[in-house]
Amino acid sequence: MTSSEKNNNHKGKNEPFTHFIHKMDRLFSERPKGMLQSLDDFFGSAKERSFPVDLHETNSEYILTASLPGIARSQISIDLLTQAVTISANHVDSLATQHKTQGMFQKDLSASRLSRTISFPKPINERKVTARHRDGILTLHLPKVKGNRIEIND
User: CA–CA separation, 67 vs 138, rounded Å?
Assistant: First the structure.
């Protein structure tokens, strides 16, 4: 068998693999369509249903700061568990426009629900939690429950 025959023989064996690689390259280089696009849209919108949170820990408490711009204090709900807190907000936006020349009145309503649950490694004292909402920033002070330390003997 000559060297050119060997090269032609190897090309025939690798051709399905090369074809597969080209198909995979096209799949990942093009914008997903159909069902994949729907999944992208779904998971992209899930990000919009949350809000940024900053958590700081001291020796005695957790300090949680949540950014909730445009949301009134009355629209915020805080639920406490032993080692977690859930912050929820129901935000309703209303936009009313009146077209004097056409004699029309238009009102657009949009509603969204934001929610975030934050877990803590140590239990919190639910009775001493304080919350403050000012200028779109919610601040929670969550005191830790002090436990007893046990020393290990021989």
Answer: 6
Nearest-angstrom CA–CA distance, 84 and 87: 10
**CA separation, residue 48 to residues 3, 76, 94, 142 (Å):** 61, 17, 19, 26
CB 114 within 8 A of CB 49: yes
Chain centroid, CA 49 distance in Å: 7
pLDDT tens string 55-98: 999 999 999 999 998 889 999 999 999 899 999 998 777 777 77
* Helix/strand/coil for 149: coil
Kindly give the pairing relationship between strand 61-67 and strand 137-143: antiparallel
| CA distance between the termini of the chain | 79
SS3 137: strand
Query: Whole-angstrom Cα distance, residue 104 to residue 6?
Result: 80
Half-sphere exposure (CA, 13 Å, Cβ side) for 1?
Answer: 8
Predicted model pTM:
0.57
